[in-house]
Amino acid sequence: MAGTEGVDGGVGATALLVAAARAIETHRPDSLARDVYAEHFVRAAPASAGWPVRIGQVPDGDANPLWGRFARYFGLRTRVLDDFLVRSAGAGIRQVVLLGAGLDTRAFRLDWPAGCTVFEIDREAVLAFKHRVLGGLAAAPTALRVPVPVDLREDWVGALTAAGFERSAPTVWLAEGLLFYLPSAAETELFDTVDRLSAPGSSLAYEVKLDRDLLEYRTSPLYTATAEQIGIDLLSLFIGEPRPDSAGALAGRGWCTCVRTPFDYTREHGRGPLPESNDALAGNRWVFANKPTALG
Ligand SMILES: C[S@@+](CC[C@H](N)C(=O)[O-])C[C@H]1O[C@@H](n2cnc3c(N)ncnc32)[C@H](O)[C@@H]1O
């Protein structure tokens, strides 16, 4: 994984994949989440300019494993994590850090309370592309938006602090679709750091995959369709190392954690992916954690 690449290759291109999925979700009559900016990213990048942004543009429609089921998965994930962030802000948190923000437009889409700051951490070339596209749309953020161009394997705390992050204020952290691309040691260090930077009352959500998902489901239609249709070989981008038990480590430090499957939310919302055989989503878990206030 090169540190300088933008959205046109390697792990940066996965941000376009999620943007295309959000565009498709946005145009569904029963959409779980709306992101009107998503299709503009897809159209603007040479790597994705020919990808669909509506399910009607996919010849086999919802039967297509990539633009049907996988895209719906991203739509559901977007909705669940939107709700989590809005809930955290509603509970009084005014500082938001998006780790591996990619083409996340929550700083523009969500109804933030007054006084919220959204820090977006990603590599410089990804944020530069995002800036260029959003600039062309004259998009107006609904919070104070602070891009922090830095690689999470480098001194991101220094960059975040220099950008105005306040350690004494509770923070809501999000690592959506990020941890698969980080070495296990980097994940452990990331959460050590998040814990250290989190004032009581902070919250955190992230997505992980159980180890077995990587190899046991390597012939899953989700992986093969993504590689064949858009040339993104997710398995070659994922770091194939045993993963740390980050939820356990956070619990050991006093965080209250809750681990859910995406399918729990499909059932809750009445739409989204359900389990199937040889399923690349079988090991996906969404983890939510809160650092209690001093009084608990
Ligand atoms: C699948 S995308 C997800 C983007 C966004 N969180 C979302 O869900 O739409 C993964 C993102 O992680 C970023 N990323 C991966 N490794 C990174 C690193 N070492 N430092 C900073 N960003 C990284 C990529 O550039 C990419 O934007």
Automatic annotation (TrEMBL):
The alphabetized UniProt keywords are:
Methyltransferase, S-adenosyl-L-methionine, Transferase
GO MF annotations, alphabetized: methyltransferase activity
According to the UniProt record, what class of enzyme is this?
A: transferase
A GO biological-process term: methylation
Concerning Pfam families, the annotation shows: LCM
UniProt KW DNA repair keyword: no
Q: Which domain of life is it from?
A: Bacteria
Does the keyword section mention Methyltransferase?
yes
Name of the protein in its database record? S-adenosyl-L-methionine-dependent methyltransferase
PANTHER family in the record: S-ADENOSYL-L-METHIONINE-DEPENDENT METHYLTRANSFERASE YKTD-RELATED, S-ADENOSYL-L-METHIONINE-DEPENDENT METHYLTRANSFERASES SUPERFAMILY PROTEIN
Which NCBIfam families has this protein been placed in? mthyl_TIGR00027
